Every structure is written in structure tokens, then in C-alpha cells.
Amino acid sequence: MRRSLRLALAASIAIASATLPSTRADAFCGFYVSGADQRLYNNATMVVMMRDGTRTVLSMQNNYQGPPDGFAMVVPVPVVLAKSDVRTLPRALFQRVDVMASPRLVEYWEQDPCPVYEEDRADNKEGGTGTRAKGEEGSMGAPKPKDLGVKIEAQFDIDEYEILILSAKDSGGLDTWLRERGYKIPAGAADVLRPYVASGSKFFVAKVDPEKVRFDGDQAALSPLRFHYDTETFTLPIRLGLLNAGPAQDLIVHILAKSKRYEASNYENVFIPTNLDVADGVRNRYGEFYAALFDRALASKPRTIVTEYAWDATSCDPCPGPTLDTTDMALLGGDVIKASGFVLTRLHARYSKESLGEDLIFREASPVVGGREDFTPGAKQSTVATPSPQNFFQARYVIRHAWAGPVWCESPRFGVWGGPPSKGRGATIKPARDLAFAPRTGLDLASMLRVDVPQMGITAGAPGIGPPRTPKMSRLTLGFLGGAGIGIIVALGAIGVLRGRRDD
Asked: 167 near 202, Cβ under 8 Å?
């Protein structure tokens, strides 16, 4: 099976030409065609949508491996788009959104139970900028369509893309229009296109000008595309993607909206279990671990949309990367949506032709909290989402290292977690990315968990974290001398260690 990786628009048709020998398209929740009878599959899709009132700004990124000649994509849109409605974005911007909202693995160390002074919190934020790739405009040079009820409503160039906006009177005419230009449309395409044509949708066609494409090795570095429109219903058409769906296809939708999170209104919604303490072995199998947890969440209800993140877009705790700044927000739609205080929601679905057959419709949802560390010593971390005045939900999993050093004080304070003792109280953070391609080997979840997950019926199989033992010498000596002798005990303990080493 030919693998098509990630990042672009749900509800698109990606079209690859007859020159495709061994290619990989990273992209769409649409269908692919080639002129060489090669069946292409779509495995993962990611989009970023900004919504306020009736306005939607939709951003998509396309990665394409192989010759760019003849590569195109077709996206159903509700209105005729003008050149001013379309632009390209910096490629680094999509990675920043993905990292910020991804499920995260956090590593904490138990702090010295007998601290001498209060350590400063480490700043985990990283810098990062994206540079927009610019190109020259060119001519479309598209053949004039026959009288098939297909009309070119607009035509313009944006960087390396040659854009057409089409209207069609019937889906068969659009199907024929594409076929006559050398594209082999999958069986059943006309039937899937029919409701979009009947509803009056237009079709955004972006063809790549090969003379303007930059390459990273053998992969064309196509600029992400963004366009906006106004509609009463907030929806994402995904039915087209079923034509190219393999056994399973991942769809990740990021939604930016003023002071609110979103969920699906026509599918069941669940929150991924969070705040789970995990075994040390998860560090090297994190993608595999999360894929197993996610699949378990969908095991009994495959038609479910999973919420993995809902948080203020300009903050995070802990942060796996830089937050979104004012420039990022403007690029993602803030220039045409005059609002502030955006919440970033991440919704994740994994579906096949049998499990997800309706376009996604979104609705506003009440704020929740979950996945935040309760730093109260000995506190039990909540693993579920609960109502909250503000949105603070994240998928977060924790490797904990119990204190293994000496304990000299009379009243040690265990259960205080932070970064490595030599680096302050910051945490080591790892985001889970490329989850559609994580190994799915039937990993035993229970063996990787230190806490039970009752909502999934899982009993932890890994040992939990408990406080370390206090050395007998320090406890006995403190019994004689009391708290005032701590300084003396530290010195005696150090001498004893040195003597022990010398005797060895």
C-alpha cells in the first residue's frame, strides 16, 4: 500500500498525474488519482480552522514526494473565492500548532525532601520563528473546458500554485471534466461529489507550477494554503476522503475560536484519559503507547471524536514548544477575524469507510479542565475532564523519578515534583507526533501504567511511585540530637561514606 502522510485539508481531492512512479502525498482527507492506474491512499489529515461568528478561515499544508508536474488538489468551498481570500503560510507555523496541542509526555523528578532554599522554576518555552516562502506569480495555462456544465468562476496565481475556482451543474459533468484532463477518478466519485454540487458548492482547484517549487531532498516543499469564507454552519466536509481511505485514516482538526472550545455535534465526543503516571519504558515507546491508548478509547465506539486539547492559544503548562504569538494568530486568520482571547481545541478521529460517513459539524462546548499537575504534596492526579470556568485540558502522561538521595531532615516533605535536581523545577517534555504511523503492535497498556484507568476498565500493571526510605543512620542520630543537629549529621554522613569507600 502506498503511504500518504500528513498535514492538509479534510474535504479535498488530491490529484496526481500519470508521471507518478513512486510517490507519497502528505495530505488530504480527499481522494487521490493518478494517470497510471495506481491507487493512492490517504492515511492522515490535519487542518487548522479559525472561527468567529459566521466566518471560517481554513488552513492546510501539503507535502508531496515525487515530481510536482501535474499535481493538483480540488477542495469544495461554499462560495467563489477571490485572490484576496487566498494566501500561503509559513511551513513552520503548522508544526508549531501541532506541537503545542499534541499529547505530551512529561518527565518529573521528586525534589529534595529537605530543601535548603526554594528553587526557581525553569522556563521551558523555546523560541522559534517561521519564514514565509515567497514565489513569483505565473500563468495557469489550463485547457478550456468543454460544455459539461463546468464553469471557471475565477483564475489567479498564488506563489507556486495556479488557482481555478470552478462551479458545476452536476457531479457527472465535473467527473468528466477531470477525466478528460487525464485524471483517473476512483469509482463512485460522482456519487460522492453529488451532494456538494447539489448544495451549490464551488470547487477550489490548486495546481502546482513545477518551476516555482522548492525541494527538501526528493520532497517538494509546498507552501501551506489558507482561504476564508462565511457560512452559517460550521462544518468540515470529509466524505470525499472515504474514496481514498485505507483500513484506517487519522483526522486531526485544530480549531481556534474566541473564548470557547468546540466539539462535534453529529458524533459522540469523549476526552482522552489524561494525567496518567506511566512506566519508564514509555519514554522510548511513547508513540506506540499513545496509539494503544487512543485505539482503546475507540474500541467500543469507533464513531467517536476524541478531544485531546483545549487551552488558551497563547499559554500552556507545561509547554512542549513555543506558544502562538500575535503574528501566528494573524497568519492563521486574525487579519480577517478581528477578535482576541482564542482557545485552541484539538479533535482527533480515526475512521474507515464503515465508521465515519458524515461531514463533521461543530458546536460550541462548555469549558473543561484536565491534565494539569496538582503540585500539592501527595495529591492524587485527576485522570478525567471536569467542568471549569476556563479551558485547561491537555493529554498529559508522566514518568516520575522518586528521590533517591539522602534524607537528613526531621520532617521530610515527599511528593514535590519538578525538573532534574541540577536544573531547577522545569520538566522534560516530549510531544506525540505522527501518531497515524505509530506502531500498532498490541502493546499491553496495563504493563505501562502506574495508575488505574477505571473509565477504560484498566488496572495498572506497573508498580506505583512511593516515598523513598529514610536512611537509618540519619533517623537514629536525629532521634538523639533533634533538628538542631542537622548540619553536624550532614558532615558525619559524608565522612562515613568516605570511610566506607576507603574500607572497600
From this structure: yes
Measured CA to CA, the distance from residue 394 to residue 102 in angstroms comes to 8
Cα-based angle 356, 358, 361 (whole degrees, multiple of 5):
115
pLDDT of residue 246: 56
Which class for 194: exposed (0-12), middle (13-18), buried (19 or more C-beta within 10 A)? middle
Q: Which residue has the higher pLDDT, 463 or 396?
A: 396
The residue among 90, 79, 71, 84 whose CA lies nearest residue 161 is: 71
Position of cell 463546468? 150
pLDDT digits (tens, 9 = 90+) for 463-478: 877 655 455 344 444 4
Rounded to a whole number of angstroms, the distance between the first and last alpha carbons of the chain is 62
Instruction: Tell me the per-residue pLDDT of 86-133, one tens digit each, with 9 for 90 and over.
Output: 999 988 898 899 889 999 999 888 888 887 644 333 333 333 333 333
| SS3 annotation, 32-65 | EECCCCCCCCEEEEEEEEEEECCEEEEEECCEEE
**Per-residue model confidence as pLDDT tens digits over 273-307:** 999 999 999 988 898 999 999 999 998 788 899 99
Phi-psi region of 23 (alpha: psi -120 to 50; beta: other; left: phi over 0): beta
235's grid cell? 462544518
What does the block give as the cell for 127? Answer: 523560541
The one-letter code for the residue type at 320 is: P
**331: which DSSP letter?**
I
